[in-house]
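Let us practice reading a record.
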Amino acid sequence: MLPQHTLPKEVSQLEHQVAEDLHKCRLSIHLIGEDYGYKPRGSEISVVDIQNRIASNHTYDMVDYNKTAKDKKPFSRLIWVSPELKNVTERQKIFIEDLKSDAAALEEAEVLQIPLQELKSIIREELVTGGRFNREQREIAGYEHDSTHGSKVIYLIQDKSDVRDAKLLREFLEGSGYKVVSPSYSGDLVDIRYIHQENLRRCDASIIYFGNAKEAWIRTKLQDLLKAPGFGRQKKLVAKAVYFDGPKSVDMDHYEKNNAMILGNNGGFKPEHLKPFLTKLEK
């Protein structure tokens, strides 16, 4: 585990040490709290900010290396943001948003805003089982492995609070001959995360159900769809959509920029809402 000593207080020495340590690692963990943090001598940004920027650049370098290398070197970043942030400075808010944007662009980076104990479980998974770099099937209660009957698989991503409201949509898709898979809501966080990533990896198309969930949750799931290749996805996602269960005061441009179809938005499920999505899926 690195670093094994106190980091230098001068910026150029600090940057050199961080870069050197990263080349010896397969996982970097970044802990983000309320305070922006200490700035080393000669720097306008904090130590934590410097570490994240160097780790981000290193991740891009490793992605490029692994594209052609026979002996690939797995490397990923886990960025933990405390779920109990309260007195956050404006500078820290900007820093956290920048972190999320940077991670969204990288399949090998993941922002987690979960209890610390759950983070420990995910770290253990990454290091002991190989995490996202280990694609061996695992036996988990509630998880169905790939079907052999040939039906196209639609991943219906919904918050636990929306399961009942999304029932009509799910039943219509299943009645139309599609295999519908959903997230898990019980069990260990590691298993819940594994099922989510496996569903992202194997589905032909996906619908994110926007009902009671907050928009921040919806955007996070949309980012997960963009990062699905990082979980071992080989084929291109045929169609992805956000189903609006009633009018929402959100920036529609954000979803269109991410090539997500907008479905529903009129209140009450109607089969015709899904027609553009299913037409694209069957092309």
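A brief commentary: The chain has a mean pLDDT of 84.
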